[in-house]
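Bumping my old thread because nobody answered last time. Still need a sequence for this structure:
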């Protein structure tokens, strides 16, 4: 079956704050158990062998949600001796408010390392300009978009990134659908609904390969992670840190 796009309740501008907060809290807990940030950190870990230690490395996180990915990336970098500065963007104002509260709670005095902005992913070149970040990451976001906008945002990611890009999203399969149903059995109703429609909007590996070919992203490797129902398309440009 082709991708099926259905509006997600968490994206509604009038979603009640307490309902959104409960959903984001549940998703943070799930991501912590299932390694939601691990897919990004695996790529960063491989690439960090050539990172400088005398200046910051920059990362843009598109559709940051509650900013659990920026927090995890910052903590990982500190443990490895790197100064990773993360910019998170999201189009939903209430989500950003909750994200700022989460960053403050988790990082305290280190909150300056994470900057959060309200922005539309399809207009980021106008907001930041080409090659504004070392790395650009989009996790569990592009499945919200129709095919043509998926291509648009990936091209924008490539233009924004000096060194590399990471796209992590849902692998559309019966296995993933079953996994999401099991994980969300005790979830808030909004999560149950959005989880189901998210899988329907996910991508098959063939679709991702086709996207990679259309955008000439042969330098990005596709990996499937079936135990968590996700895939990554990630790559660092050859000689990235010689630029």
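Sorry it took so long. Here it is:
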């Amino acid at each position: 079956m082709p991708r099926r796009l259905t509006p997600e309740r968490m994206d509604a501008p009038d979603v009640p704050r307490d309902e959104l907060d409960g959903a984001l809290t549940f998703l943070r807990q799930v991501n912590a158990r299932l390694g939601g940030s691990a897919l990004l950190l695996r790529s960063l870990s491989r690439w960090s062998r050539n990172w400088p230690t005398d200046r910051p490395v920059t990362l843009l996180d598109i559709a940051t949600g509650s900013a659990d990915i920026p927090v995890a990336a910052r903590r990982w970098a500190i443990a490895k001796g790197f100064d990773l500065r993360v910019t998170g963007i999201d189009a939903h104002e209430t989500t950003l408010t909750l994200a700022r509260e989460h960053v403050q709670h988790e990082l305290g005095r280190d909150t300056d390392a994470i900057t959060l902005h309200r922005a539309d992913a399809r207009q980021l070149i106008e907001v930041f300009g080409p090659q504004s970040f070392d790395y650009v990451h989009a996790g569990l976001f592009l499945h919200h978009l129709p095919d043509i906008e998926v291509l648009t945002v990936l091209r924008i990611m490539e233009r924004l990134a000096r060194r590399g890009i990471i796209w992590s999203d849902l692998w559309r399969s019966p296995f993933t659908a079953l996994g999401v149903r099991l994980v969300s059995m005790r979830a808030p109703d909004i999560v149950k609904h959005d989880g189901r429609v998210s899988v329907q909007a996910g991508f098959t590996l063939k679709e991702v390969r086709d996207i990679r070919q259309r955008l000439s992203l042969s330098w990005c490797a596709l990996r499937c992670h079936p135990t968590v129902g996700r895939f990554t398309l990630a790559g660092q440009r050859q000689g990235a840190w010689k630029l």
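The longest strand covers residues 161-170. Let me know if any region looks off to you.
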